């Protein structure tokens, strides 16, 4: 089983692009954490959804993979995760959506595991 962790990020309107770019650079470093399965963590944005209104103002997304709930909890509690989110997102945050789910064993091959 693999646990999929999805986060959508929305910055306040007054946040400069330079801040957002530093956030992207820093959050990508989390893929090196041992609790990220096979270092599979992808961050992207800004949204290219059309029409853009369907994105509801969320600009960036993160998708990461974890072995199980314990590994996700380890990821969330890590000092690196705390540093990156606490420094590069929380002070600039307008909103955030998080969605986590466990895959079925049959879907492991689709994910490349």
Automatic annotation (TrEMBL):
Gene3D superfamilies: 3.30.70.100. It comes from the Eukaryota. Residues 3-101 form the Stress-response A/B barrel domain. It holds the Pfam family Dabb. SMART domains: Dabb. Homodimer. This is Stress-response A/B barrel domain-containing protein. It comes from Penicillium brevicompactum. The lineage of its organism: Eukaryota, Fungi, Dikarya, Ascomycota, Pezizomycotina.
């Amino acid at each position: 089983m693999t646990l999929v962790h999805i986060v959508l990020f929305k910055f306040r309107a007054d946040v400069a692009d330079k801040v957002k770019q530093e956030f992207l650079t820093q959050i990508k470093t989390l893929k090196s954490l041992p609790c990220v399965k096979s270092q599979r963590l992808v961050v992207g944005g800004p949204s290219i959804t059309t029409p853009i209104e369907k994105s509801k103002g969320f600009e960036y997304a993160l998708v990461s993979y974890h072995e199980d709930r314990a590994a996700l909890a380890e990821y969330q509690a890590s000092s690196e995760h705390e540093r990156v989110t606490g420094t590069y997102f929380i002070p600039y945050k307008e909103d955030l959506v998080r969605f986590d789910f466990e895959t079925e064993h049959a879907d492991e091959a689709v994910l490349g595991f």
